[in-house]
Design brief:
By secondary structure, the protein is of the alpha+beta class. The protein contains two helices and six strands. The relative contact order is 0.16.
């Protein structure tokens, strides 16, 4: 018998491996550890370069958050950060499922969302 569950996730960005995997899947430069000068001051963590953004997004993994300054969209489209967050959540779920020996199947949906199917007990 197959049991299906729908899960909603509020994403905290804490896993550097999943950050790097998300960047690779989106064709972004590899994230680097460093300090960025944002308009409002300095921020330290993993620097993620999003397309069209003046400043990098800074992943503060200890706090599970992303610091950024896109000046309300004038210095970078929020949609780029949303795409990164979506991909991070997918990559983190994939990493954790595989650690537990589960198979993961990914489906891109017409509305831009991604459906993951995690099959308990089968790795792929």
């Amino acid at each position: 018998m197959s049991v299906s569950h729908i899960v909603t996730i509020q994403t905290e960005v804490r896993d550097p491996e999943a950050v790097a995997a998300a960047c690779r899947r989106l064709g972004l430069p590899e994230p680097v550890r460093g300090t960025a000068e944002l308009f409002s001051g300095e921020a330290a963590g993993l620097l993620v370069r999003l397309p069209g953004w003046r400043y990098p997004a800074v992943v503060d993994a200890a706090a599970g958050r992303i610091l950024y300054d896109n000046y309300g969209g004038a210095w970078g489209e929020r949609a780029q950060l949303d795409r990164f967050m979506q991909r991070y959540a997918v990559e983190k779920a994939r990493i954790e499922a595989r650690k537990r020996g589960h198979a993961v199947v990914e489906h891109a949906l017409a509305d831009g969302s991604i459906r993951l199917t995690i099959e308990v007990g089968g790795a792929s």
